[in-house]
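Q: What residues go here?
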């Protein structure tokens, strides 16, 4: 049920707006139903309360009749004892003043109307007998009055009392029954109201869950698919059962993923061809360039005869630019080999201390030419490592060369340290520094901080990119800490022992 209902809702061939509108209207209907049931319960409770009030009024009227009867009997008994004329007049008036109470009791009697008529008749008979007794007393016939009292009034009063008690008992029994019935109705109404309310809440929860699950599940699937695409996973598909806008979006996402997968494979193939082409071309260019440099140096050395002084300077420029061009070709060749997976490390023991000192010696002439000092800080117990010494030297020379290229005053610092598993090397300078927004991009291929055609510092922007890939092949990494106008510190870490060459993406 938990999984079935959201799938059914998802497969409904209507839009998301319609689904949400229907669910909201359904909940509104259920809440209206709860309100209607509540009103019915209130109306029933009011009806029961009204009935109880009517029964209370009926009992009060019957008790009034009981009091009246008691007063009449007491008045007649008093008349036999007190023969005062004023007392007799008062007793006569009292016998005739309770007609309103009978009318009131008759009005609310309901099914007891017949019994009320019987009581009314008996009471009228009591009045007549009472009037007769008062007349006998006034005539001085007290004994006859007492005999009439005993013969007729006593039995009549007993009958009146029984009839009135019967009225009161019937009303009280009806009130108890009505109260019990009202209580049962209240519990039933309470159960119905709670049941309808709980059903409405359950229905709202089920509808809300079904709607939300039918929307959030495909959204989550598409979110994960977008993350996969962002990480280069183009071949997967998502299955979304929705027949609404989310279904269309999912199908569009699958189509886009397929297109991207095809484009990615085409780009991989193109990149592979490009890398192979650059590797081949770099090799082909390097061979004749080495020959040109060799013959130029031979001519400059006078192997083929004396060289005029004015030509000697030109030959020096040719050699200098030729070596620069050869460096560029070697950089492109290295990058192409790495991208094509053809660069293989030569793993062997090396002394990092000696590699750093040799690299420093190699760049010292350029430092002296610019008036810069290279400060080397190496611990005496720096351990030996296992890796490609030539490629590590290449990284060191690139970092030192960049530091010298961009530093005009101050000094260059080189330091190294080791922990049980890793080497860490830092190359610092007092140059202009690197803006924060550029620090994450300087290790990309062909990227330079100044990419304008009028930039002061020459280069291809490949040195740092190649250095990073060489370190990644060793299982290491490279980074930079820099602030504008406060110099830069490039650092790299690599394992002390590289047992196997790593793959580079």
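A:
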């Amino acid at each position: 049920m938990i999984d079935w209902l959201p799938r059914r809702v998802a497969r409904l061939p209507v839009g998301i707006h319609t689904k949400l509108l229907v669910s909201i209207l359904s909940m509104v209907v259920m809440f209206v139903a709860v309100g209607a049931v509540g009103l019915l319960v209130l109306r029933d409770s009011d009806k029961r309360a009204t009935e109880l009030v009517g029964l209370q009024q009926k009992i009060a009227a019957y008790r009034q009749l009981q009091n009246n009867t008691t007063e009449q009997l007491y008045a007649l008994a008093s008349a036999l004892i007190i023969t005062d004329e004023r007392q007799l007049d008062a007793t006569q008036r009292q016998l005739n003043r309770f007609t309103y109470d009978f009318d009131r009791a008759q009005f609310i009697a309901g099914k007891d109307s017949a019994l009320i008529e019987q009581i009314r008749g008996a009471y009228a008979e009591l009045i007549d007998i009472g009037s007769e007794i008062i007349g006998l007393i006034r005539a001085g016939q007290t004994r006859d009055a007492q005999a009439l009292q005993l013969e007729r009034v006593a039995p009549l009063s007993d009958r009146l009392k029984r009839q009135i008690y019967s009225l009161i008992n019937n009303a009280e029994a009806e009130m108890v029954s009505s109260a019990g019935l009202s209580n049962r109705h209240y519990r039933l109404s309470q159960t119905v109201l709670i049941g309808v309310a709980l059903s409405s809440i359950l229905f709202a929860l089920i509808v809300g869950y079904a709607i939300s699950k039918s929307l959030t599940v495909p959204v989550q699937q598409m979110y994960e698919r977008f993350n996969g695409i962002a990480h280069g996973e183009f071949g997967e598909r998502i299955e979304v059962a929705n027949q609404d806008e989310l279904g269309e979006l999912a199908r569009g996402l699958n189509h886009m993923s397929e297109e991207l997968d095809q484009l990615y494979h085409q780009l991989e193939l193109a990149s592979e061809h490009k890398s192979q082409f650059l590797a081949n071309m770099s090799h082909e260019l390097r061979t004749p360039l080495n020959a040109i440099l060799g013959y130029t140096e031979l001519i400059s050395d006078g192997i083929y005869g004396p060289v005029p002084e004015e030509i000697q300077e030109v030959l020096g420029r040719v050699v200098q630019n030729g070596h620069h061009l050869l460096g560029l070709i070697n950089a492109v060749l290295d990058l192409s080999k790495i991208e094509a997976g053809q660069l293989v490390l030569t793993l062997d023991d090396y002394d990092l201390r000696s590699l750093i000192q040799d690299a420093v010696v190699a760049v010292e002439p350029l430092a002296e030419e610019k008036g810069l000092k290279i400060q080397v800080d190496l611990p005496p117990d720096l351990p030996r490592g296992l890796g490609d010494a030539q490629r590590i030297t290449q990284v060191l020379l690139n970092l030192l060369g960049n530091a010298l290229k961009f530093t005009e005053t101050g000094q260059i610092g080189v330091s190294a340290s080791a922990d049980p598993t890793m080497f860490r090397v830092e190359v610092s300078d007092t140059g202009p520094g690197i803006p924060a927004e550029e620090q994450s991009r300087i290790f990309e291929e062909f990227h330079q901080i100044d990419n304008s055609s009028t930039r002061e510092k020459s280069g291809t922007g490949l040195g740092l990119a190649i250095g990073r890939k060489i370190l990644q092949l060793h299982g290491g990494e490279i980074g930079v800490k820099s602030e504008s106008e406060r110099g830069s510190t490039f650092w790299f870490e690599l394992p002390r022992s590289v047992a196997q060459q790593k793959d580079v993406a």
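A: Context that may help when evaluating the design: The radius of gyration is 57 Å. Residues 344-495 form a domain with the Heat Shock Protein 90 fold (CATH 3.30.565.10).
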